[in-house]
Amino acid sequence: MSVIKPFKGLRPTKQYAEKVASHPYDVINSEEAREIAKGNPFSFLHVNKPEIDLPAGTDLHSEAVYEQGAKNLKKIIDDGIIVQDEKPCFYIYKQVMGSHEQIGLVAGASVEEYDNDLIKKHELTRIDKENDRVNHLLSLNAQVGPVFLTYAAKDYIDAIIAELVKNKPEYDFVSDDGIKHIFWVVSDEKYISNIQQEFAQIDYLYVADGHHRSAAASRACQELKSKNPNHSGEEEYNYFLTVIFPHNQMYIMDYNRVVKDLSGLSKQEFLDKISSKFLVREFSATDSYKPAVKHDFGMYLDGIWYKLSAIPGTWNEAEPTERLDVSILFDNLLEPILGIGNPRTDKRIDFVGGIRGMQELEKRVNSGEMTVSFSLFPTSIEDLMAIADAGKTMPPKSTWFEPKLRSGLVIHQL
Description:
Layout: E1 4-5, E2 10-12, H1 17-20, H2 30-37, H3 45-48, H4 63-78, E3 82-84, E4 90-97, E5 100-110, H5 111-115, E6 119-120, H6 127-140, E7 142-143, E8 147-151, H7 155-164, E9 171-174, E10 180-186, H8 189-199, E11 205-209, H9 211-226, E12 239-246, E13 252-253, E14 255-259, H10 267-274, E15 278-284, E16 296-301, E17 304-310, H11 325-334, E18 349-353, H12 358-366, E19 372-376, H13 381-389, E20 400-401, E21 412-413
Parallel strand pairs: 6-11, 8-12
Antiparallel strand pairs: 1-5, 2-3, 4-5, 4-10, 5-12, 7-21, 8-11, 9-10, 13-20, 14-18, 14-19, 15-17, 16-17, 16-19
């Protein structure tokens, strides 16, 4: 079963919602955050990336940064910019990006179920990033960045959500990136009970995006539990902030690769070597190649786009991780031919989210910074769930979810 819980959300008043809502902490750097928040004292970036209010060059993981975040959160609470709901609520969060729409339920998800793998993961985490999120969470005594969960879509849950979004939303605005954000408060106890009962019929939830935030919530729960002699299991720290979307509304974009050099090979030697695993066809010197089907790849080299088609038999179709395009490219080209080691740490490779477009791949190569780029067909949500079900992990940088969830629309206090 999937245990979810309403909570007394701390959230902006209507007039400040658009000014408060910000990019997630991990999709922009400090310089970008400083520029975006300039002139907007209400931006949640002051809480999510509090180093912007400290001197440039401040260690991002210093105690001063976490203390500044707590100070900034306290100020917007004291100033009445954000206020707490009087009773536990669920919330509905709809995003519209172009023709794509997705509607998720904002709820507290169970840390116990996360620890017991009833909330399934598909990525490894880095301890330094976990530590950062634990320190941030405990300094604020609140979870401010929602974890993006998904589940196998259920008609009866869709029907409840469809009924609720007929009501007037609490917030409705378009952010600076053109994405529409619509937000409803669900305080009716009948609907809250119905939603909980229906989710109780779902066997598993899946972490789509936010593995470090969910791991941090688990660690923070254990720490707070150990310090609480009256621990009951009902405390807010036993739950973490999530937005839960049905799987058939997920939009995963391509996550592309750029490589610094050809590992000492000439262009012709490189093309000859990859021809043993891929059918290589010159595509165009003017038009980029964006793969339309699985196991096809685009490659930009020396001003020319090529179409690469993986030769059948060069991957294990029965193995859910090995049949991913990111694995096929790595196992048959990036590692054996270009000598890329651990993609998490190898400085010769970088990753470009599909939201930046094919022109970013061309730009990185044309500038001389990189030598070759690869465009990939997006990983499917079904592949993600199959890997999580098998208890395996996906290679780094396998999925790029859009649109991103805005931070600051609702906070879960511990």
